[in-house]
């Protein structure tokens, strides 16, 4: 590649996800290596005696039971070594209440717990060694050439085709988003379904919202996003902060140009402009209306095939117009007609700018579409 010869390049640290996954793989390999050399028979086993558990000994029967447990422990230690290095008083207390088989299971459980702890410590130690190694190999300005082939070399701390993305990079989106807040078409996400989602669905919903925010930022004419019925400090609020990170507008601090409200869209928009998008509507959205305020339910169902009709019911109870995307006319869709939140946003954006449903539905992942009917 002569590209590097014509341009001065800089080697930066964590410039891409690839570098990070490379480091992660290196870390995993090092941990694996240390663990394969580990021999569970060669641990620092404590020599157990009944005296260690004297506070538990209330009578002769208990003393005998403790001795019995220690005997089983000693035997397992030499046969399988699937026992912990020692047994604490409280663990002995538990063991006293258990049967022979349960005791064996408990030893194994304690062994696994110990191994887990060991692995975590090894990982921590290896990671800090790796960080030291990286810190010592400081980035150097200039092009790095392979001494043998004399061609540029690529990789960590060498030449990089990626520039380091500073936080200022995100500012290039600011102007568009600023315009969107002032003049853009509002697009509402309705967050009133938290109580109807289990933890898995909530996680998935937050991820989809993160994608939606991300993709909207890349558009030339982004939507003005409104998050309605989102309660401050609710589970959704906390999770969104975790999932979306810096791009999530905390209540009161709005760097991402998203309107976050704990009140309803009914308080912010004229009711006759609102159109609730829902896959269960009888009406189809034939053309995009630039005056309408479309609402997307921030709701993810548990499983395909037993979807709840949550959004249609809510829209009907509020007396709102509803519409579904005209999927049936253009595509055969796999696994249910309910699309992801970010997919719906992308379709709306494309239909708004092209007025072509075929193009809009082409934005769906190929795995979700079987055949295109009308082109
Ligand atoms: C995963 S869907 C939720 C489906 C759920 N059964 C419901 O009651 O809406 C999430 C949201 O995306 C929008 N959506 C998904 N697929 C749609 C479609 N085919 N037509 C219209 N809106 C759709 C709706 O706003 C919906 O609330």
Automatic annotation (TrEMBL):
<keyword id="KW-0496">Mitochondrion</keyword>
<keyword id="KW-0949">S-adenosyl-L-methionine</keyword>
<dbReference type="InterPro" id="IPR025812">
    <property type="entry name" value="Trm10_C_MTase_dom"/>
</dbReference>
<dbReference type="GO" id="GO:0000049">
    <property type="term" value="F:tRNA binding"/>
</dbReference>
<dbReference type="InterPro" id="IPR007356">
    <property type="entry name" value="tRNA_m1G_MeTrfase_euk"/>
</dbReference>
<dbReference type="GO" id="GO:0008168">
    <property type="term" value="F:methyltransferase activity"/>
</dbReference>
<dbReference type="GO" id="GO:0032259">
    <property type="term" value="P:methylation"/>
</dbReference>
<dbReference type="InterPro" id="IPR038459">
    <property type="entry name" value="MT_TRM10-typ_sf"/>
</dbReference>
<keyword id="KW-0489">Methyltransferase</keyword>
<dbReference type="GO" id="GO:0097745">
    <property type="term" value="P:mitochondrial tRNA 5'-end processing"/>
</dbReference>
<dbReference type="InterPro" id="IPR028564">
    <property type="entry name" value="MT_TRM10-typ"/>
</dbReference>
<protein>
    <recommendedName>
        <fullName>RNA (guanine-9-)-methyltransferase domain-containing protein 1</fullName>
    </recommendedName>
</protein>
<keyword id="KW-0175">Coiled coil</keyword>
<dbReference type="GO" id="GO:0005739">
    <property type="term" value="C:mitochondrion"/>
</dbReference>
<keyword id="KW-0808">Transferase</keyword>
<keyword id="KW-0819">tRNA processing</keyword>
<dbReference type="GO" id="GO:0005654">
    <property type="term" value="C:nucleoplasm"/>
</dbReference>
<keyword id="KW-0809">Transit peptide</keyword>
<feature type="domain" description="SAM-dependent MTase TRM10-type">
    <location>
        <begin position="173"/>
        <end position="371"/>
    </location>
</feature>
<dbReference type="GO" id="GO:0070131">
    <property type="term" value="P:positive regulation of mitochondrial translation"/>
</dbReference>
């Amino acid at each position: 590649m002569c590209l590097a010869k014509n341009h001065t390049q800089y080697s930066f640290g964590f410039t891409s996800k690839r570098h990070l996954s490379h480091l992660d793989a290196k870390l995993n390999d090092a941990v694996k290596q240390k663990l394969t050399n580990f021999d569970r028979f060669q641990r620092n086993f404590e020599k157990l005696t009944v005296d260690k558990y004297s506070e538990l000994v209330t009578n002769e029967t208990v003393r005998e039971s403790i001795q019995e447990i220690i005997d089983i422990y000693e035997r397992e230690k030499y046969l399988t070594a699937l026992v912990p290095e020692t047994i604490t008083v409280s663990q002995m207390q538990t063991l006293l209440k258990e049967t022979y088989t349960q005791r064996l299971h408990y030893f194994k459980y304690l062994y696994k717990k110990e191994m887990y702890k060991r692995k975590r410590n090894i990982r921590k130690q290896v990671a800090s060694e790796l960080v030291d190694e990286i810190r010592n190999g400081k980035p150097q300005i200039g092009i790095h050439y392979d001494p043998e082939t004399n061609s540029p070399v690529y990789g960590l701390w060498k030449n990089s085709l990626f520039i380091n993305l500073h936080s200022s990079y995100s500012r290039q989106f600011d102007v568009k988003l600023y315009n969107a807040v002032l003049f853009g078409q509002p697009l509402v996400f309705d967050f009133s379904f938290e109580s109807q989602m289990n933890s898995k669905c909530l996680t998935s919903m937050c991820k989809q919202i993160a994608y939606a925010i991300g993709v909207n930022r890349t558009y030339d004419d982004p939507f003005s996003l409104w998050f309605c019925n989102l309660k401050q400090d609710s589970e959704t609020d906390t999770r969104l902060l975790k999932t979306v990170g810096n791009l999530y507008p905390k209540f009161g601090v709005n760097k991402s140009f998203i309107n976050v409200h704990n009140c309803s869209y009914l308080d912010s928009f004229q009711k006759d402009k609102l159109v609730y998008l829902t896959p269960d509507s009888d009406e189809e959205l034939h053309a995009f209306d630039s005056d309408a305020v479309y609402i997307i339910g921030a709701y993810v169902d548990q499983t395909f095939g037993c979807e709840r009709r949550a959004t249609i019911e809510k829209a009907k109870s509020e007396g709102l117009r509803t519409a579904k995307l005209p999927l049936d006319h253009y595509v055969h869709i796999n696994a249910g007609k309910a699309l992801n939140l970010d997919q719906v946003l992308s379709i709306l954006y494309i239909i708004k700018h092209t007025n072509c449903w075929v193009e809009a539905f082409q934005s769906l992942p190929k795995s979700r579409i079987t055949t295109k009917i009308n082109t």
